[in-house]
């Protein structure tokens, strides 16, 4: 996990990344969002789409207004419904009249401890895109790639014309994704990584956090290997003694910012649940043991 680059960051500026793609950084940096959420504008001239409009903050909405200018907004597209990605969709739709399309709304079981504190429950899409479905505009086609794992409703969007993929939080340019049960699922996450790795046509990834990824398949291969390494670490520690999920964090995430220890514990828990389903570990209360 890399630290953020030195300031100043280009917050609020429209950065042209390639002829069809502009990026606008939201003013919401944090240990979980790096320098902030990156909204993308696809298309230029006759009509555009806005991907991951970000937090519902007036400064960011004004920056998006300035970047869009007089262009017609054909669609507001969300990769998933974490609160740093989708809340501005409603305000931007009111400003532009554009439909909200993309991921499904995420409704979690309300029994037991709340697990949806980070979710945008105001998200109401006009159209939910299924795997392989396309949204089109003047000179561009954005195709949905279902990539559950980080959360169950996560989509990436492939720009057919250029080989670019907007990867949301599934693949980021600064860190691996956090997988938080019960909605986050490590087996699904790994399957989604394998799915992206199999897409040889993809040229570049534009993540919601961090820099563009110019060797996407190489990075994804490394991410798969990293997760397998974490899995092996867990099994090795359990072969020595039973552990609770929190016990793994200081052993496996040395030097990690303490503010991220909770996220690391959740990802370890997601690994443990996956290993349990595969019959490799067993739990009794909060304690986990190797089989």
TrEMBL record:
Signal peptide range in chain numbering: none
Gene Ontology MF, one: hydrolase activity
Domain Metallo-beta-lactamase: residue ranges: 36-209
Domain of life: Bacteria
Keyword line: Hydrolase
Gene3D superfamilies noted in UniProt: Ribonuclease Z/Hydroxyacylglutathione hydrolase-like, Winged helix-like DNA-binding domain superfamily/Winged helix DNA-binding domain
InterPro entries, per database record: LACTB2_WH (IPR041516), Metallo-B-lactamas (IPR001279), RibonucZ/Hydroxyglut_hydro (IPR036866), Sec-metab_biosynth-thioest (IPR050662), WH-like_DNA-bd_sf (IPR036388)
Organism whose genome encodes this protein: Qipengyuania vulgaris
Protein name from the UniProt record: MBL fold metallo-hydrolase
Entry-linked Pfam families: Lactamase_B, WHD_BLACT
Entry keyword annotation includes Hydrolase: yes
């Amino acid at each position: 996990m890399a630290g953020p680059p030195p300031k100043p960051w280009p917050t609020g500026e429209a950065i042209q990344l390639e002829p069809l793609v502009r990026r606008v950084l939201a003013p919401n940096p944090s240990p979980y969002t790096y320098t902030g959420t990156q909204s993308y504008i696809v298309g230029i001239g006759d009509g555009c789409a806005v991907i991951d409009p970000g937090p519902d903050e007036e400064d960011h909405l004004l920056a998006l207004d300035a970047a869009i200018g007089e262009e017609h907004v054909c669609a507001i597209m969300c990769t998933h419904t974490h609160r740093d990605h989708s809340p501005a969709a409603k305000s931007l739709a009111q400003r532009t009249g554009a439909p909200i399309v993309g991921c499904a709304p995420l409704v979690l079981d309300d029994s037991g401890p709340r697990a949806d504190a980070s979710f945008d429950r105001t998200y109401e899409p006009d159209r939910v895109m299924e795997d392989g479905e396309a949204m089109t505009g003047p000179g561009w086609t954005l195709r949905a790639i279902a990539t559950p794992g980080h959360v169950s409703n996560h989509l990436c969007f492939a720009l057919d014309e250029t080989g670019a993929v907007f990867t949301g939080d599934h693949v980021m340019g600064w860190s691996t994704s956090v997988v938080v049960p019960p909605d986050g699922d490590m087996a699904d996450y790994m399957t989604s990584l394998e799915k992206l790795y199999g897409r040889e046509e993809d040229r570049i990834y534009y993540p919601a956090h961090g820099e563009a990824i110019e060797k996407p398949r190489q990075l994804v291969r490394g991410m798969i290997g990293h997760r397998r390494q974490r899995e092996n670490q867990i099994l090795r520690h359990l072969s020595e003694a039973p552990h609770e999920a929190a016990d793994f964090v200081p052993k496996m995430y040395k030097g990690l910012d303490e503010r991220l220890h909770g996220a690391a514990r959740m990802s370890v828990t997601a690994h443990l649940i996956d290993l349990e389903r595969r019959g490799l570990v067993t739990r009794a209360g909060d304690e986990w043991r190797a089989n």
